[in-house]
Amino acid sequence: MTKTVYIGMDVHSTNYTLSSYTCETDSCFSTVKLGPEVKNILKYISRIKEVHGNDAGIVTEEVAEEQVFETNLL
Q1: What is the CATH number of the domain that holds 23?
Q2: Residue 32 to residues 1, 2, 35, 52, 55: CA-CA distances in angstroms?
Q3: Residues contacting 39, CB < 8 A, separation 6+
């Protein structure tokens, strides 16, 4: 794994807002608002991996109703 990309998700019933972050650049990038379908999130992750390398580690954090969930993906 060459780098880790953190993806934050603000989750609502009608839309999700996603944004990515790496420690290497210490900045957020690729902030988007998506419809709440899983296929949209998978497409976003796929695009992030295309840009940062297929061996990049992906860590997600979603915020829903004042709770934070962290998941290591792919």
Answers
A1: 3.30.420
A2: 25, 24, 10, 17, 23
A3: none
d(CA 50, CA 15): 24
Q: How many domains does the chain have?
A: 1
Is residue 74 assigned to a domain? no
Predicted structure pTM score: 0.77
Within-domain flag for 71: no
Which tens digit of pLDDT belongs to each residue from 12-39?
Answer: 889 999 999 988 889 899 999 999 898 9
Please report whether residue 73 resides in a domain: no
Instruction: Label the pairing between strands 67-73 and 57-64.
Output: antiparallel
Nearest to 13 by CA among 29, 31, 35, 33: 35
